[in-house]
Amino acid sequence: MEKMTGVKCKSCGRVFYPKRSNCLSCMSGDIEEVELGDGCKLLTYTKLYAVPLGVDRIPLVLGIVEFENGARATGQIEADHVQIGMQLKPVWGHLRRIGRMEVFGFKFTQP
Amino acid sequence: MGRKVAIIGCGMSKFGRRDDKDLMGLLVEASTRSLGDAGVGRKDIDAVYVASMLCGELTHQTAIASALADELLVLPAAAERIENGPASGASAVKNAYAAVASGLYETVLVTGGEKMRHAPGPIVTDLIATITHPTAEYVHGVTLPSLAGMLTRLYMQRYGLEPRHLALVAIKNHNNGLKNPYAHLHRKITLEGIYLEPEAKLNNPPVADPLRMYYCCPITDGAASVVITSAEKAKKFNDTPVTVAGIGHATDTLAVHEREDPAVLKAVQISSQRAFDMAKSEPKAIDVIELHDAFEILELAESEDAGFFEKGTAHKAVEEGVTELDGDLPINPSGGLKARGHPVGATGVAQIVELTWQLRGDAGERQVSGAEQAYALNFGGFGNNVVSFVLKRSD
Questions:
Q1: How far apart are CA A3 and CA A6, in angstroms?
Q2: Which of A87, B149, B317, B374 has the maximum number of C-beta atoms within 10 A of its C-beta?
Q3: A54 touches chain B (CB under 8 A)
Q4: pLDDT band (50, 70, 90) for residue B394
Q5: What is the domain extent for residue B52?
Q6: Among A9, A10, A11, CA closest to A19
Q7: Distance between CA B47 and CA B31 in Å, rounded?
Q8: Does A58 touch chain B (CB under 8 A)?
């Protein structure tokens, strides 16, 4: 199964997502790819009714999650009762259409 | 810092749904007014800067500054289009400032405009969303309203903000817009109609919950224009030039979730501090403010991070009427993006137009009496590219 990955700075230890070639905190270029893990919690969210072209689901729930290693990510939330602080996990799935292309990526569901 | 720079002319097209004119027609309408207001001749214009984010995508015209120079017959003036997302307008004014301050040019025409209403909403929303992080935000369906919705929820959780406060900001800005003949929306709205009554949920449907329609700016056609020259030359053209005293410009991470605290607009803090430092001024010295309220949460958050209120307290100031036209610190006398409208490339220029009128005493019914110093903030990206100005009435 696909695992969601980010990068870890070998110099200061910060883990971040998406991948960058240098650390956002200490600028070191000594970084390695790491799995972000299965557990994250929801920091904030919105239910989007004015969806952009290429998204068919209304409302589309979007949120920012934080992993146990401190990395954060933005993505679609699929859960019954969405609330700040809830536990989520990344799963691979269909995200949207861009032009004629179907785009897939990680979204977040209840464990 | 080079020569002193002044604004000697300004003008706007009527903002709104402008089916009567194409984008070029709107740019000409605003430019003709600012050139006329400045009293400069065609030969005086050394350069034309046009701010537009989406002219290619929405109106099928690119390199639009060349076309405007031709249309206005200011040839052979230099011409270029400046695109910096929703902060395109302020970026164009800033670059005109730099060109004049350095001595490269003597007089520059800056015109910002956008024609958007003819395109379907989901297409416009999607085009504007392309300013977000391409792989970490955009592909997930993130739009600007969705980022504003997430910021609003953080504010509600952390600072006790209620949707009622967003309604109060919107009502204030609609009231101000009623006094602005150029504003898109001339409509009085009430707390009953958009918040309190049972029908309010129908009148004011959700856009990016907890943000509802009346807490977001409309999609608007329009253009705004200023003429900028050196302070020494300004006196020849205009008895009441306005000095560009300070400019600050700062960036932040493209993805909102990468910021140390996603509720803090760091580029607003830094751009504001830089503008105040350059102007040798401070927030307490400001009499009138134009902020980038594409969503009413932004008027609150920007007013805090720019230094006018403590973090998390702006909604209380709104409740006390501090930011009303007759309050201690009027914000968005023009009606802001909420009521004046938000033709994206025009907005940053329109803010400077409004503040120039305020400092000259030409703002009519919405005049803030005795305004001597003004502050503008144009918010690009979702806070990842922010331009601030401090303007002063010249003595």
A1: 10
A2: B149
A3: yes
A4: confident
A5: 5-119+219-234
A6: A9
A7: 13
A8: no
pLDDT at A72: 98
- Tell which residue, B255, B132, B129, B140, has the closest CA to residue A90: B140
What residues of chain B lie within 8 A of the CB of A45, using their CB?
150, 153
CATH number at residue B68: 3.40.47.10
Q: How many distinct structural domains can be found in chain B? A: 1
Indicate yes or no: CB of B150 within 8 angstroms of CB of A73. no
Per-residue pLDDT tens digits for A25-57: 999 999 999 999 999 999 999 999 999 999 999
- Domain layout of chain A by residue ranges: 5-109
Asked whether B136 and B37 are in contact (CB, 8 A), the reply is no
Which residues, listed in sequence order, are joined to residue B288 by a DSSP beta bridge? B374
Q: Which two tokens stand for residue A1?
A: 């199964």
Q: Is there a domain that residue B35 lies in?
A: yes
Domain contains B27: yes
Which residues sit opposite B12 in a β-bridge?
B224
Q: pLDDT at position A2, please?
A: 80
- Whose CA is closest to B332, among B312, B347, B311, B310? B347
Residue A1 has pLDDT above 70, yes or no: no
DSSP secondary structure letter of residue B284: G
> Does residue B348 form part of some domain?
no
Out of B157, B253, B262, name the one closest to residue A84 (CB). B157
Q: Is residue B53 part of a domain?
A: yes
Judged against a pLDDT cut of 80, whether residue B395 lies above it is answered with no
Q: Which residue of A has its CA nearest to B128?
A: A52
Whether the predicted pLDDT of B239 surpasses 80: no
Q: How does B220-248 read in b/e, with b if 16+ C-beta sit within 10 Å?
A: bbbbbbbbbbbbebbeebbeebbbbbbbb
- DSSP readout, B327-362? SSS-B-TT-HHHHH---HHHHHHHHHHHHHHHHHT-
Residue B130 scores a pLDDT above 70: yes
Model ipTM over 0.85: yes
